[in-house]
């Protein structure tokens, strides 16, 4: 065993046995090097090893610490959805959520929108302004149906961080990830086919299933490890499933990152049953660990994984720039994209390509994911203090949304309406099921506004629950 591995083992043991507690500062690199008679680079490598395991976190100019957020032993229960394919409903509720931004809503916790006020977006905004001023005609004509060549080149380079080796011709640019998911579903299936999905699942993905006249088969999903491969295999044996649609990295709404060995096992399962995987990686770059986890696409040997993503969650939804790496389905995807919306606007693609090329995107991601991790911990603390004792909540490993499971007495459909009257907007759990399950759950975001406003929102929700169920406190 190498010196750095031995040192990492010793530190790991001290942390796991409570010698160093959550929030404690760990010995400095120089101090450990002196105490153990090793080089500074050996200590740094040991700390990097523990960072990837999330047992240690580095704080700029302060040193290394044990993360203040302990392991969450109060996770929501693993879902138990219906065990048969179903038509997706819930459109009216989704439309209401998307359209509902009343002026009296001070505390917005319902929309999965990123923080767009950060200073690291300034170079992108300047590029957009310069392009509009200097080359306004560039945005008027037709562009490449597959997307601007420079952007596709930059996206193929960006994919290396997720373990994917892509050529720019493998990439098709779309109008956001929603179009990417919709195009991919149509490319791998026909009306009436069955798509296996996680449960709970992002409502936009389910509405894409509905629009393509497909049926959804919800698979039990663990809030920390993701879709149950055992349940999925049973479903594959029982039903003629055409594709699996998953968000395995910084999932929406649960926030988990599926372990790498499980991602590989999911891919092998798809190979065994010869079906496609549609991988939604829209939050992948926002995981709190570094380097970011590999995508399922990284294991793709035969082109059956269609990787979808966009800048809607990492940068801004108004850019409307997403993409697909469709593998063997590239030609079908390109054709469906053409008949669906033809080309995408050019100026935003050029600006984003420059943002990527000059390193602005990397700087932005480094800053924003640290901000989101801090905001997560603040919101979790507010939930722990103010909501009912039996409340269960996820501890996201990335992104900026989390999933709350209240005691069964709490109806979040009713709670959503009550909270709205008090200026607080939340997303009811029933939106995240094909049949309206999860009525005692909700999704909350922690991406924008202040910690004080978010805490105020949690207090208002707590008061509303207490008024009807005082026994829960």
UniProtKB/TrEMBL annotation:
<dbReference type="Pfam" id="PF00392">
    <property type="entry name" value="GntR"/>
</dbReference>
<dbReference type="InterPro" id="IPR000524">
    <property type="entry name" value="Tscrpt_reg_HTH_GntR"/>
</dbReference>
<keyword id="KW-0805">Transcription regulation</keyword>
<dbReference type="InterPro" id="IPR051446">
    <property type="entry name" value="HTH_trans_reg/aminotransferase"/>
</dbReference>
<dbReference type="GO" id="GO:0008483">
    <property type="term" value="F:transaminase activity"/>
</dbReference>
<dbReference type="InterPro" id="IPR036388">
    <property type="entry name" value="WH-like_DNA-bd_sf"/>
</dbReference>
<keyword id="KW-0032">Aminotransferase</keyword>
<dbReference type="InterPro" id="IPR036390">
    <property type="entry name" value="WH_DNA-bd_sf"/>
</dbReference>
<keyword id="KW-0238">DNA-binding</keyword>
<dbReference type="GO" id="GO:0003677">
    <property type="term" value="F:DNA binding"/>
</dbReference>
<protein>
    <submittedName>
        <fullName>PLP-dependent aminotransferase family protein</fullName>
    </submittedName>
</protein>
<keyword id="KW-0663">Pyridoxal phosphate</keyword>
<comment type="similarity">
    <text>In the C-terminal section; belongs to the class-I pyridoxal-phosphate-dependent aminotransferase family.</text>
</comment>
<dbReference type="InterPro" id="IPR015421">
    <property type="entry name" value="PyrdxlP-dep_Trfase_major"/>
</dbReference>
<dbReference type="InterPro" id="IPR004839">
    <property type="entry name" value="Aminotransferase_I/II_large"/>
</dbReference>
<dbReference type="GO" id="GO:0030170">
    <property type="term" value="F:pyridoxal phosphate binding"/>
</dbReference>
<dbReference type="GO" id="GO:0003700">
    <property type="term" value="F:DNA-binding transcription factor activity"/>
</dbReference>
<feature type="domain" description="HTH gntR-type">
    <location>
        <begin position="1"/>
        <end position="69"/>
    </location>
</feature>
<dbReference type="InterPro" id="IPR015422">
    <property type="entry name" value="PyrdxlP-dep_Trfase_small"/>
</dbReference>
<keyword id="KW-0804">Transcription</keyword>
<keyword id="KW-0808">Transferase</keyword>
<feature type="compositionally biased region" description="Polar residues">
    <location>
        <begin position="69"/>
        <end position="81"/>
    </location>
</feature>
<dbReference type="InterPro" id="IPR015424">
    <property type="entry name" value="PyrdxlP-dep_Trfase"/>
</dbReference>
<dbReference type="Pfam" id="PF00155">
    <property type="entry name" value="Aminotran_1_2"/>
</dbReference>
<feature type="region of interest" description="Disordered">
    <location>
        <begin position="62"/>
        <end position="85"/>
    </location>
</feature>
